[in-house]
Specification:
The protein is built from 3 helices and no strands. With 89 residues, it is an all-alpha fold. The chain has one domain. The chain is flat, with a radius of gyration of 15 Å. The protein starts with a helix and ends in a 5-residue tail after the last helix.
Length: 89
Amino acid sequence: MIEYLALIILIIISLSIALCMIRVFKGPSTPDRVMALDTIAVNVLAFIAILSIYLGTEMFFDAVLVIAVIAFVGTVAISKYLMKGDIIE
């Protein structure tokens, strides 16, 4: 039962990532594109976590943590660049 539910969730998350990719390419403004990229990062994290549950392994949880840290730092860097025009002062 959990396998079927995990598979349905994986399909829904994949659809969400595809819709966010449309927002990245056709976004009306740069902040909208940054938010779409951040949402894609969160969806990828969820996808990997659900895939790990679906496969019955705990190997991917370390990758989830690393991707979460990289996504957070990337979002902060892009936001700071958009606000000030410079990342490192």
